[in-house]
Design brief:
Chain lengths: 110, 115
């Protein structure tokens, strides 16, 4: 069974600070996705990482993928309040099924 | 990006009744649809995967007779919660993908409350 773990589960950080969220998965996969979820809402796609060494950046968020280590990171640079949300990574298995990480609830405080 | 339209957004129903949730892919052909359930402050749990024209594949622990999934066309999939009970109250989300190595697009979600 494919397991996807995120660390940390909860994160409170001050505006302007940097932090990294980690996503570990248990089986071989070359496809890793990051999503954002606001309370009561569905998922918003942030990044799709399709190969080892892939790095993508959008605004204050940057995601990377190391398929050999089965690790993806989501780095937050100079956090702002608008980034407060829950972030999920998800891995696609060979059966084309998504398995989601535990989620990281991020609160950015002034 | 592509759009998956899910409705209703929220529904309240009585115990013992059935509820149907629809997901439509508006500008792409969703060869595969996924259905997820999310309890408060938890992650999304995959319930089932359906390919157009085929029977859905259910995850372990998900009752296929209770959660009926139909994916009769490339643009429409439905989830029917039969004989709903309060413990079925949850946030249900669908997503569709057009094939391997393509992104999955998520519906807006349906909040089901069974009273």
């Amino acid at each position: 069974e494919l397991k996807v773990e995120q660390n940390p589960l909860f994160l409170s950080m001050q505006e302007g600070k940097n932090y990294t969220i980690y996503c570990n998965y248990s089986t071989t996969s070359d496809r890793l996705y990051w999503y954002r979820q606001d309370p009561g809402k569905s998922l918003e796609s942030l990044f799709v990482l399709l190969s080892n060494g892939a790095v993508k950046q959008e605004g204050r968020l940057m995601a990377s993928l190391d398929t050999k280590a089965r690790l993806s990171t989501l780095h937050i640079t100079a956090a702002v309040h608008d980034l407060s949300a829950t972030y999920f990574c998800a891995v696609l298995n060979t059966g084309n099924q998504f398995y989601f990480g535990t989620g990281t609830s991020l609160t950015v405080i002034p | 990006g592509a759009v998956v339209s899910q409705h209703p957004s929220w529904v309240i129903c009585k115990s013992g009744t059935s509820v149907k949730i629809e997901c439509r892919s508006l500008d792409f052909q969703a060869t595969t649809m996924f259905w997820y359930r999310q309890f408060p402050k938890q992650s999304l749990m995959l319930m089932a995967t359906s390919n157009e024209g085929s029977k859905a594949t259910y995850e372990q622990g998900v009752e296929k007779d209770k959660f009926l999934i139909n994916h009769a066309s490339l643009t429409l999939s439905t989830l029917t919660v039969t004989s709903a009970h309060p413990e079925d109250s949850s946030f249900y989300i669908c997503s569709g993908t057009g094939g391997l190595n393509t992104e999955a697009f998520f519906g807006q979600g349906t909040r089901l409350t069974v009273v």
